Amino acid sequence: MLGNFTYCNPTKLFFGKGAISSLTSELQKYGKNVVLIYGGGSIKKNGIYDEVVRCLDAADKNVREIAGVMPNPTRDKMNEGIAVAREHKADLLLAVGGGSVCDYAKAVAVSVNCDEDPWEKYYLRFEEPTCEIVPVGCVLTMVGTGSEMNAGSVITDTATKQKIGHVFADEKVMPRFSVLDPTYTFTLPRYQMVAGIYDIFSHICEQYFSGEDDNTSDYISEGLMRSLLVSSRAAIKDMTDYEARSNIMWTATWALNTLVAKGKTTDWMVHMLGQAVGGYTDATHGMTLSAVSLAYYRHILPYGLKKFARFAVNVWGVDPAGKTDEQVAGEGLAAMESWMRELGLVMNISELGATEDMLEGLADCTRTQTGGYKILSREEIIEIFRESL
Hints:
Radius of gyration: 20 Å
Mean pLDDT: 97
Pfam family, one: Fe-ADH
Number of helices: 15
Structural class: alpha/beta
Keywords: Oxidoreductase
Strand content: 5-15%
CATH architecture of the largest domain: Up-down Bundle
Strand order of the largest sheet: 1-8-5-4-2-3
Protein name: Iron-containing alcohol dehydrogenase
Order of helices and strands: EHEHHEHEHHEEEEHHHHHHHHH
GO molecular function: alcohol dehydrogenase (NADP+) activity; butanol dehydrogenase (NAD+) activity; metal ion binding; methylglyoxal reductase (NADPH) (acetol producing) activity
InterPro entries: ADH_Fe/GldA (IPR001670), ADH_Fe_C (IPR056798), ADH_Fe_CS (IPR018211), BDH-like (IPR044731)
Number of domains: 2
Largest sheet: 6 strands, parallel
């Protein structure tokens, strides 16, 4: 295992049925003024909102709300939240929802006391906070992003069609606590569930497909991927299968809490390609990843052949006997495609609204990464998007 690293993850997790019962006592650790942040209102229909409000009332909190956080939170919405949190003198931001709501809360948290334009500072210049960061807590209702236990935040500027993620270095940006009750995900539409499942899988792949050394992180990643394959197949048969949904939720958290990135360079080009598509189409994040993944991985396979062959054997169970590495690796990606179709994932970007005349613009909005097996040229990026159509 090559490379030195520091690992710190201060997020406290409350996991399992009824985990919300821990929220009231946890809230006592923070000041009186809480900003409750959520999305389109589904939590009011399924009763989660009422449970959270009861905890806030029991903790005697003074609450303001920011509702309507969209699946791809925008720069304008971020600025709206900053204004609310400043006016309320927020002591805690409580995000109730999926990854986008958690991402949004973190963006507001680092911006409330920032005396510069946060979009410019954090998402264009990728600087770290130099101001006080407002604490964030999460009550998770959709799994996929791992935002409940990391310092990542993705925001979209609709004017420039830039969808940009910043993984902050300061652990104070990480949620101080997260409530993870798998039953809270049961009412999620199937489309959103499978999109989240693929987001989890893609997070693991982004870290797995880098490096050539014998790395403990890769063994952990293979185990997480195999668990996800089993759980995903059970969940699409019965969306209320608690065992399956709890395993998916736990895998999502460990897929992107930085553990399996340790000792790795990590890739992240699939996310850069997918985020460009999301910036143009406002499509669901996990589906933008599924739509570009296979074209990308088939493109870089020759440059990381040994790892792709290992992936085929250790994750997909491909028998390597009498086959070349190229044949084994190709069978692995074919097995991956078959599983993706079994889940009902989007397999091309045209289904998301992308068109041939967008390719140049998509390439312009794609940030090139250097941690994978191949640094892409602009021409290669355009070709991958074209193959993804």
